[in-house]
Write a structure and sequence with these properties.
Radius of gyration: 16 Å
CATH class: Alpha Beta
Distance between the termini: 14 Å
Largest sheet: 5 strands, parallel
CATH architecture: 3-Layer(aba) Sandwich
Structural class: alpha/beta
Bound molecules: thymidine-5'-phosphate
Strand order of the largest sheet: 2-3-1-6-7
Oligomer: single chain
Helix content: 40-55%
Number of strands: 7
Number of helices: 8
CATH topology: Rossmann fold
Number of domains: 1
Shape: globular
């Protein structure tokens, strides 16, 4: 069976996490082996980089370089081997988050991000090298004002969660640019709805791809 790579994206507070667990269960009941992972993170080295990125103050270029360093290790150690074994990889955030947060939110150069993306994600395929991307990206789309209300009653915020609403408007614009550049890879989910309604959209997006019986 061919490997499947599905990423989950959205601004902080968009509510993607519970759906990652639920989708993993659905694939498992269909007999698929599922690897659940996250970015930044997913390997011991990348988790160390995650702690730096989420807690330490640094400029946008440093942030971008660290998330791509973490991604390189994650791809090599976890994602590519799992896909080669035919597993389903469910990844809580991937490169779209870099374009949204470092590109949109922090205003870092999109050309440099594009260059790093190509460098870090190039992998060997049967027909030569290609740039690894998720087969499907579920974008949990939510107004930053609503996300801020949700976060206010949640856990102690990390560096990004503590940002003002205007930052998340820029992050959302960053996501939107990624969707517009490659619409067929994305499913846009209306994340302001009740959890069950969002879940129905998740299932529909995956079914439409023919990956669930
Ligand atoms: P999360 O695991 O709670 O979603 O937190 C990860 C945070 O890191 C989130 O605020 C988004 C941010 N982030 C970036 O800034 N750049 C990236 O490339 C990734 C993957 C995440």
């Amino acid at each position: 069976m061919a490997g499947l790579f599905i990423s989950f994206e959205g601004i902080d507070g968009a509510g993607k996490s519970t759906h990652i667990d639920a989708l993993a269960q659905v694939f498992a009941t269909q007999g698929r082996v599922v690897t659940m992972t996250r970015e930044p993170g997913g390997t011991p080295l990348a988790e160390k980089l995650r702690a730096l990125v989420l807690n330490d103050t640094m400029d946008a270029m440093t942030e971008a370089l660290l998330v791509f360093a973490a991604r390189r290790d994650h791809l090599q150690q976890v994602i590519e081997p799992a896909l080669a074994r035919g597993e389903v990889v469910l990844c809580d955030r991937f490169t779209d988050a870099t374009f949204a947060y470092q590109g949109g939110g922090r205003g870092f150069d999109l050309g440099i991000l594009t260059y790093l993306e190509r460098m870090v994600q190039t992998t060997k395929g049967l027909d030569g090298n290609f740039v690894r991307q998720p087969d499907l990206t579920l974008w949990f789309e939510l107004a930053p004002e609503i996300a801020a209300q949700r976060l206010a009653s949640a856990r102690v915020p990390d560096k990004f969660e503590a940002q003002p609403v205007d930052f998340f408007k820029c992050v959302s614009d960053g996501y939107l640019r990624r969707v517009q550049a490659d619409p067929s890879r994305f499913a846009r989910l209306a994340a302001a709805q009740a959890r069950e309604a969002v879940w129905a959209e998740v299932l529909q997006a995956v079914r439409q791809k023919g990956w669930l019986t």
